[in-house]
Amino acid sequence: MATTRKPTRLKEPVKVRTKKLADGSESYYLDIYVDGKRSYEFLKLYLLPEINPMVKEQNRATKAAIEAIKSKRIIELTHSKAGLKKTSVRSKMLLDDWMETYLAEQERKGARGGKLLRTVCRLLPLYRKKVKMGEIDKEWCLGFIDWLQHTYKTRWGNPLSPKSAADYVGYFSTALNAAVRAEVIPENPIMTLAPTERIKVPESKREYLTIDEIKALIDTECPREDVKRAYLFSCYCGLRLSDIYALRWKDIFLDGEQYRVSTVMQKTTTPIYLPLSRHAVRWLPERDGEGDELKIFAGLPAEPNINKVLAKWAVAAGITKKITYHTSRHSFATMMLTLGADLYTTSKLLGHSNVKTTQIYAKIVDSKKVEAVNLVDSVFD
Known about the structure:
Elements: E1 14-20, E2 26-34, E3 37-47, H1 53-80, H2 86-90, H3 95-109, H4 114-127, H5 138-150, H6 162-181, H7 211-218, H8 225-235, H9 241-246, E4 252-255, E5 258-264, E6 271-275, H10 278-282, H11 303-316, H12 327-338, H13 343-350, H14 355-380
Antiparallel strand pairs: 1-2, 2-3, 4-5, 5-6
Helix pairs in contact: 1-3, 3-4, 4-6, 8-12, 12-13, 12-14, 13-14
């Protein structure tokens, strides 16, 4: 009777391995063995101690990215003998896998804009699922841009602003540029778009309150005291609502006789260290022995509801402008420039990485100066 041979199990040429590091994390690398030769590829991706659910989710994303890289390397090795170009093999990689790999690498580097990039990673599958990198051409990109502008709605049911849509396309383009450098795709199709095919972002109109209007709000009762305090606090320090939501008592401290706030801005992940004026401190709620880790403005409603409260408050104060919470940040910027602070200092107080962003407020102040000077003509003509 013939002996039945067990099928020979083929060994994978690429294996994932880890190396323990002193800080308790593990560094991932690939062990590649081909034609009797061994080489290693250190991925600069790390498995972190799972101290909370956020880290656990990050580890899950990292593992998925590593498996995608491993599969990509195996395909490359398999096809290289057939003389295929790297991009022809790598372009079969799914867009979702590439974006996850790119996001993990950016987070490892501590790059700015992680929140926006995560949003782009979430939006792409909503537009089209199971897309291969090689399928992303100019027509695909134009379709994505059109979808962002005319179909997609935010969780509040509103269309995206041109600025937000342009930001998302910009971050997607950056990820495609990285794919070109990694030889996943031969070119970035977004770079081939004509100016008329790109999203046009109108110069933003920064609504703000004058000093007299801020005084009017102070003298007017607001439907919610916590909203009034949070809004006026931002008028005197320029923090965004996302930063107000996250602000804890430990972030505010007394440095000699000067109160300061030290936090990381939620939008840009930029550390910011600000002095607080006496009027800013005045609008902080009573602490009553609250612990350092507790949020200062706990219990604030969601942004749409805050803006409804602000609208009623503004009407009661005799203000006809349409104000939202972000108006407080604009008001702080224009107030600083109006009172004589220089552009660079104001930029740092706002946490802007580029002073050009702050120049928008300078234009507003300059236009008000022109109006003031022209009042002379109306008096003497």
